[in-house]
Amino acid sequence: MILTAHQPVYLPWLGLFDKIAKADVFVIFDTVQYLPKDWMNRNKIKIKDDYTYLSVPILDKGYLKKKIYEIKINNQVNWKKKHFKTIYNNYKKSKYFDKYIHFFENLYSKEWEFLCDLNTYILEFFLQELRIKTKILKASEINIKGKKSDLILDMCKKLNANCFIFGEQGKNYAEVDKFKKCKINIIFQKYEHPIYNQIQGNFISHLSIIDLLFNCGDKSLKILLNKI
To answer: What is the pTM of this model?
Structure first.
């Protein structure tokens, strides 16, 4: 069984879906520490020849002592209206605008208290639209222990995985010998970002998956897996 995992990310980029699509099980790492200025509460979308960040404000008091699933959104800031307006205005001329804009209209009309719940809801929708059928679990539902490489190794043992897909940065902390000793193969993802048609300006890579979906619709999965 092939396993992979990642922190819950806001409007994730293509590489995360490539990693999930190649696994049998994906674990949402909602029990690790929240990191500011990471991708847990923000991502990039295209605006003409540039990009802009969409950031979800959080209640950051004591966040260094909190797990991701404990992080609350600061709804005193009118972030939902801003995010929807920015998405609407920048993708209204895209080929698949009508197919996806209703999801975002519904998404930003809901009340969200916890960042992890928001990110999980978004992830599940995108996986459904991409027709990725990988099983999804949450780390908070599994009794796993350790830090970094040891945490992943323990997770592999608990879920009976014989292969784990790390992100490219996994090379910086994975203790390869421990996995070999347990007869667990490891793969370090090296994602080659595809080039696809965008509605305006020069091509910009490493954006949120929404850019690909609005521009390419049903072809998105084949494009992100570099099969087109």
So the answer is: 0.94
